[in-house]
Specification:
Strand order of the largest sheet of chain C: 1-2
Structural class of chain C: mainly alpha
Largest sheet of chain B: 4 strands, mixed
CATH topology of chain C: Formate dehydrogenase/DMSO reductase fold
Radius of gyration of chain B: 16 Å
Oligomer: heterotrimer
Strand content of chain C: under 5%
Helix content of chain C: over 70%
Order of helices and strands of chain B: EHEEEEHEEHEEHHEHEE
Structural class of chain B: alpha+beta
Largest sheet of chain C: 2 strands, antiparallel
Shape of chain C: globular
CATH superfamily of chain C: Formate dehydrogenase/DMSO reductase domain
Order of helices and strands of chain C: HHHEEHHHHHHHHH
CATH topology of chain B: Alpha-Beta Plaits
Helix content of chain B: 10-25%
Number of strands of chain C: 2
Chain lengths: 808, 188, 388
């Protein structure tokens, strides 16, 4: 695909959003892309599905050998050990092969028609009896584009994902402080960063980001990893700061203390682009313009006029008021004054006691970070201790303190590819990307009723199932996600699943929840299907297309999940299916892509229109190279040229969104939502991933060696307790009394007082795990010990806990 | 002369396992059978974690393609030989499976493939085919962290030569007289 | 009648052993260490064969006939014993290769046309060469002694007899010292590396060879009237050989202490009770005392007990010496301080099957030799040149 630079500049000039772009649509060299040649070599662009990041890969088949390579031209090239093991996932003996139906307490294989008809009938019955909102659909990243269509065809508001035990808290922080969305929307400009601090982020995904960071490391960029355990990235030349779990906010507060105390902050940025100068009344609400005779909802004190002015119009806003000025604004204080007062509670030596990190380390890192104008990564997985909303707000504020927002090498906003949702609410309706209208659900989404600032909080669904509040939930579709591996309070989740009248599990492997399903439907894995999606982890606006590389292996009658779901809708409500152009023609799964294509093409048309390029060119690039870069990242846009999506349009150190939701508008260090360890045999049990862990990859034989199912213990603790490497111990959750056994690995990768176990890996319990894979049962599932308390409003469920260790 | 060599950068490696698993996929057909010699997967790269010291450290180990390879000296049939390009290779037709080379290798870089009843090691068949085409071996091709390189030491313009000129590196078990060509970079 | 029974039993034993070994061969698997049970098994029998051949050289080269010329009576049995004892070694090692016939690749390459090959730097190449020479020279010696019974001309060719005997001696000495250096030349295993392996193997060979031969000869000692000779002669060899063995082993242990990598291997050996029971007790101490007692008291029973202990403990000694340093080698690949994993090895059923099968075949061949060949004094070759 070739666009002349001149033509592109013309197009871009008329685009609404960006004014200073000069990027050229990326043209890949043809060297890597070889069409099927007589020698039988195949090179197929694929979007990785071995974790949720979606890096660009190439499936290679040559000389009878099949393996995966990174797609180096792609804006987010892979890869890690997970897709490298993709062929093992593809041909895995435990792969779900045929539709299963629960009869008594056993599964029997049934044919697709039987399964789909029965599910449709039951679904229809449930909807008729309890209303469409009694049907919940849960998902992770896979199929997340398609599912809203299924959701709205049923008429339920409840498409509730995994984010409550993933990034709900950090995304809520991004929304509150920057007016931005999910984890990739705001990200460090890794390639150009000058100093990087990772707080509870281990960069186990995406590898495309790791590649960019590698370029920065060539320049000698320093990386600081603040984490109670050393993730895989800490094997190399990084500074690992082993911190006590749940105390990140105190660490960050102390960094702010040093930066403010030593004047290392960017005062100009703070005044112009954050709400630091904003005046706040003694009751905590912002001083309104009307109250002091100026326009607007937000007021600052303008030193130029020695008078209050609208926040955005003040020519020289002050950060600290004089006493005279304060009297003139009724005793109001600036956000900066309030923030500094808050920060004063955490000088480095106080933070040192809380965090277990030496004071001079905190001071040094603060100085290095501020002087280098570095970036603290804004967080992805944040459901750890139940106090992460504050932690990640502090991260964003610290980046703002050094003025490093949306600059080259700073914490940047992603240029959006604008790939439309398959359907969006519009007025009283839901409008599909093809233009078809569907009725909007009447009921409100379950978890949003309790957690208005969340992304998803699935815990609310379990509660609704068990208590019937706020309304009953009777059916659940689990699509490509593992609730029992991901959600807190495992035992309660199992109880809830057992109470449902219809549970349909759509997956490729037997995760724990499969045992509680009434129907299990085998899905295709990422090498077997085609998909168009945004390239998630790049600051450029880009799309990618994953091509089909392989059919499922013989004996695996897996089919495309969207087909299964549309078939269910068609069999339950044929008229609704017809309304979106889906009829019995598509009962043949091979014909399905004709129907699916119209949605993808409609979406691509919207993108083409947005970027003023031809749809055909777009499709050609996606077809041949597997990706297209629509626009390269433009720096210096937000909040400089475009306001942020916050109430003030600025970086909100004082979050008005939080205030409106009755949360502390300023971040603070708060206690975790589980009991801390006190006795010598009590330990924090923390969890996380590495680039060798994912829910699917866990099943592969490679994962047996690359990952581990042990519980990590620091050598000093091991010596103290008389535990040796490989010993078996019993863990007892001190908040819920749950007991389980695991092998200990004595390693310096975890700090004293803390145990670590990989999430999603150990303690598998499905009865479909048999034979040589019995080892998957070893280890613990960290969710067995979690309290299930939820961080208020942001709906994040901590997955850390405290356990008592007993040597066996 | 050509002297092909590997480079592994310990200061950049993120232990993602891509090289380990990709070797298994490309050279060993994603085999799921266990590698009994190493209690590992069937791959030419093994991972050694040093978890008792003051901070975690990692080694990735594979055939060092020594210039003075003890595995070639002890091989009674000439199955293990040093090729003109500097790589130590295996001619499986000649191998009698006596495993003297496994015993003689100070790096334990060879593992035993019981279905062929021969020791195997880096480089596998697919990587050798790739090198013949001017491509990088699979482990280098997949590394996302820029922690690997490969090329001709006798070509001062090759990327490995340039990288070595800008790095501090160590060689493993230098005192054994093997003259290994696997460079472990420890910093710039 | 009894002879046919004996022949049939020996043949049955031969077949049973072959079948067992074949079953073992079919069920082979990979182990955590490269050289498992079959290698010390092979080494053991190779040492017994070459060692007993050296013991024979005391007569054939150095002319010691015994106080009453007893050696002349047992020499053919002795040579047969040396020759056949190499067979179980060959079986075990060939069944440990990719295929038994693949060993031809050591000398002949068939790819791209026929060509000869000789990797002179490889200890195994020399082992193959020396075994061939060993078999050849011993066969010639055996045939010489058998034909000497009926050929006056041969009996008079004393210089030829000496030349053959010398050839045998040279080959055996080079063979078992080279066998030692197959291990001793491996720099990668510090516990093995050094010239001491050649010396240790020679000393072991003499002790084990004497012991093995003593057990074999004692079956016929009564009938040949050499009981007292057997009791004293072999005991004397043990009385000299075992202290030499202890001397060498002692210095090996002390020397290993100075190299942490070697000590890693020796710690594994020394930390097991096996070492004290077998390598010290039943290989050195007890047999030495028994042999001394047997020598002065002229007790065949004591002598045989000492021999039996040396045979059993000699195998355990070789097993430990070959197996344990391989486990430690893996530990120390990159620094023992790292505490890199632990290796477990136990002989697999298939290896045990091959080993036992080989031993059964060995015993069967020994018996068949005595039944079919004129090995006892006064027996003459009547059929097919060398058979009874």
């Amino acid at each position: 695909m070739e666009l002349q630079r001149r033509e592109f500049l013309k197009l871009v000039g008329t685009a609404a959003v960006v004014s200073s772009a000069f990027g050229v649509v990326h043209v890949a060299s043809a060297s890597q892309q070889v069409a099927a040649s007589p020698s039988g070599e195949r090179v197929v662009p694929v979007m990785c599905g071995a974790c949720g990041a979606g890096c660009g890969l190439l499936f290679i088949e040559r000389g009878g050998k099949r393996y995966i390579l990174p797609n180096l031209e792609h804006p987010q090239p892979g890869m890690c050990g997970r897709p490298a093991s993709a062929l093992q996932m593809w041909s895995h003996p435990l792969r779900l092969k045929k539709p299963l139906k629960k009869v008594g307490d056993k599964f029997i294989e049934v044919d697709w028609d039987t399964a789909l008809n029965e599910i449709a009938a039951k679904l229809k019955e449930v909807v008729e009896r309890y209303g469409p909102e009694s049907v919940v659909i849960t998902r992770h990243d896979v199929h997340s584009w398609f599912l809203p269509l299924f959701q709205y065809l049923i008429g339920t508001p409840n498409l509730i994902g995994h984010e409550g035990t993933c990034h709900s808290a950090s995304t809520a922080a991004r929304a509150a402080v920057l007016g931005a969305g999910g984890p990739p929307i705001v990200d460090p400009d890794y390639e150009n960063v000058s100093y990087l601090v990772l707080v509870g982020r281990n960069l186990d995904a995406a590898m495309g980001l790791v590649r960019q960071l590698a370029a920065a490391r060539e320049r000698g960029v320093k990386i600081v990893v603040v984490d109670p355990r050393a993730p895989n990235i800490a094997f190399g030349s990084v500074e690992w700061v082993p911190i006590i779990p749940g105390t990140d906010a105190a660490f960050l507060m102390a960094m702010a203390y040093v930066i403010i105390n030593e004047g290392l902050y960017d005062a100009d940025f703070v005044k112009r682009y954050t709400n630091a100068p904003m005046l706040v009344k003694p009751d905590g609400t912002p001083l309104g313009g009307k109250e002091v005779g100026v326009e607007g909802d937000y007021v600052a004190w303008d030193a130029a006029d020695n008078a209050p002015a609208p926040l955005d119009k003040a020519k020289d806003p002050v950060l600290m008021l004089s006493e005279e000025a304060r009297q003139r604004v009724g005793g109001a204080r600036t956000v900066w004054e309030l923030f500094v007062e808050r920060v004063r509670k955490y000088p480095p030596d106080v933070a040192a006691k809380i965090t277990g990190v030496p004071a001079d380390t905190i001071v040094r890192i603060a100085r290095e970070f501020a002087t280098a104008r570095g970036v603290i990564e804004d967080g992805w997985y944040a459901a750890k201790n139940g106090n992460e909303f504050d932690t990640y707000r502090l991260v964003l504020i610290l980046n703002a303190l050094v003025g490093n927002i949306d600059k080259r090498g700073g914490l940047c906003f992603q240029d959006s590819a604008g790939f439309p949702n398959i359907c969006d609410p519009a007025g009283p309706d839901i409008v599909a990307v093809t233009g078809v209208k569907l009725p909007a659900p009447k009921a409100k989404r379950l978890d949003k009723l309790l957690y208005p600032l969340n992304v998803s909080t699935f815990d609310a669904v379990y509660e609704a199932i068990l208590t019937g509040q706020p309304y009953p939930v009777k059916a659940l579709f689990i699509v490509g996600t593992s609730p029992l591996q991901r959600d807190a309070r495992y035992q309660m989740a199992v109880e809830a699943l057992k109470k449902l009248e219809l549970v349909v599990a759509i997956d490729i492997f037997p995760h724990d929840h499969v045992d509680y399903a009434h129907y299990v439907l085998p899905d295709l894995m990422f090498l077997e299907r085609e998909e168009v999606a945004t390239v998630r982890w790049t600051l450029h606006a880009a799309l990618q297309k994953s091509h089909m590389a392989l059919d499922p292996p013989p004996g695996v009658d897996a089919r495309h999940a969207p087909w299964m779901l549309m078939e269910i809708v068609r069999r339950a409500w044929p008229d609704r299916a017809k309304a979106v152009g889906y009829d019995e023609r598509y009962a043949d799964p091979h014909k399905f892509e004709e129907w699916e294509r119209q949605f993808v093409e409609a979406a691509l048309k919207k993108v083409a229109d947005r970027f003023k390029v031809s749809v055909d060119d777009l499709k050609k690039a996606l077809e041949e190279k597997g990706f297209v870069v629509l626009k390269k990242k433009s720096y210096g846009v937000r909040p400089y040229k475009t306001k942020l999506g916050t109430p003030t349009g600025r970086v909100e150190i004082y979050s008005i969104t939080a205030l409106k939701n009755k949360l502390d508008p300023l971040p603070d260090y708060r206690e975790p939502l589980y009991t801390r360890p006190k006795a010598p045999d009590e330990f924090y049990l923390i969890n996380g991933k590495d680039n060798v862990v994912s829910s699917h990859f866990a099943f592969t034989p490679n994962a047996k060696y690359l990952g581990d199912r042990t519980v990590w213990m620091n050598p000093k603790d091991a010596e103290r307790l008389g535990v040796k490497d490989g010993d078996e111990v019993e863990l007892e959750g001190i908040d819920n009394g749950f007991k389980a056994r695991a092998r200990v690995r004595v390693t310096n990768r975890v700090r004293e007082g803390v145990l670590f176990a990989y999430a999603f890996l150990g303690g598998r319990r499905s009865s479909l795990i048999t034979g040589q894979f019995a080892y998957l049962r070893e280890g613990v599932n960290p969710q067995w010990f979690t309290t299930g308390k939820i961080e208020p409003v942001v709906g994040s469920a901590p997955t850390n806990s405290t356990v008592r260790v007993r040597r066996l | 002369m050509t002297r092909l060599a590997h480079l592994w950068d310990q200061s950049r490696c993120i232990a993602c396992g891509a090289c380990i698993a990709a070797c298994n996929a490309s050279n060993y057909g994603s085999s799921t059978a266990p590698n009994v010699s190493w209690n590992w997967l069937r791959t030419n790269i093994r991972r050694i974690e040093l978890s008792n010291g003051p901070r975690p450290m990692l080694y990735l180990l594979q055939c060092q393609h020594c210039e003075n390879p003890p595995c070639v000296t002890v091989c009674p049939t000439g199955a293990s030989y040093k090729d003109r390009d500097g790589l130590v290779k295996m001619n499986y037709d000649l191998c009698i499976g006596c495993r003297y080379c496994m015993v003689a290798c100070p790096y334990d870089a060879r593992w035993f493939n019981e279905s062929m009843w021969t020791p195997v090691k880096c480089m596998g068949e697919e990587c050798q085919a790739r090198i013949a085409k001017g491509e990088q071996p699979v482990c280098v091709a997949v590394c996302p962290a820029g922690a690997r390189d490969f090329g001709d030491l006798d070509d001062p313009g090759s990327s490995i030569s340039r990288r070595l000129a800008n790095s501090r590196y160590v060689k493993l078990l230098d005192n054994m007289g093997t003259k290994p060509k696997y460079f472990v970079v420890v910093g710039p | 009648m009894r002879r046919w029974l004996a022949l049939a039993s020996a043949a049955a034993l031969l077949i049973a052993g072959a079948v067992l070994a074949w079953i073992g061969y079919a069920g082979r698997s990979a182990e955590e260490i490269p050289w498992g049970l079959l290698v010390p098994g092979y080494v053991f029998f190779a040492l017994m064969a070459t060692g007993s051949s050296i013991v024979n050289s005391i007569y054939t080269v150095f002319g010691y006939k015994g106080p009453n010329g007893e050696y002349e009576k047992i020499i053919k049995l002795g040579v047969w014993f040396s020759l056949i004892t190499i067979v179980p070694a060959w079986i075990m090692i060939l069944l440990d290769l990719r295929s038994p016939l693949s060993a031809i690749n050591i000398f002949i390459h068939t790819q791209g046309g026929l060509s000869l090959f000789f990797q002179y730097r490889s200890g195994i190449t020399w082992m193959a060469t020396l075994y061939t020479l060993f078999a050849l020279t011993l066969l010639i010696e055996l045939v010489y002694f058998i034909r000497s019974e009926v050929s006056e001309k041969l009996r008079l060719m004393k210089s030829a007899e000496l030349a053959i005997a010398l050839a045998v001696l040279v080959v055996t000495v080079v063979l078992h010292s080279n066998l030692g250096q197959v291990f001793g030349n491996v720099v990668a295993v510090p516990a093995w590396y050094g010239p001491h392996m050649a010396l240790y193997f020679i000393a072991s060979a003499i002790a084990i060879g004497a012991a093995g031969q003593a057990l074999f000869i004692s079956a016929f000692a009564g009938g040949l009237g050499v009981r007292e000779f057997v009791a004293r002669y072999y005991s004397r060899i043990l009385m000299i050989g075992l202290p030499v063995l202890a001397f060498i082993k002692g210095w090996m242990v002390i020397n290993a202490w100075y190299n942490p990598a070697s000590w890693e291997a020796y710690s594994l050996i020394l930390s097991s009770p096996n070492f004290y029971i077998f390598e010290i007790g039943l290989l050195l101490l007890v047999p030495f005392l028994l042999a001394t007692f047997a020598y002065y008291k002229k007790s065949p029973a004591m002598a045989l007990l000492a021999a039996a202990l040396v045979v059993i403990a000699g195998f355990v000694d070789k097993y430990d010496l070959i197996i344990e340093p391989q486990k430690a080698h893996i530990f120390h690949s990159l620094g023992g301080w790292a505490g890199v994993g632990s290796i477990h090895y136990a002989p697999t059923p298939s290896q045990i099957e091959i080993a036992i099968g080989s031993v059964l075949v060995y015993v069967a061949l020994l018996v068949l030799g005595v039944l079919l060949l004129p090995l006892k004094p006064g027996e003459r070759p009547r059929t097919l040149f060398i058979f009874k």
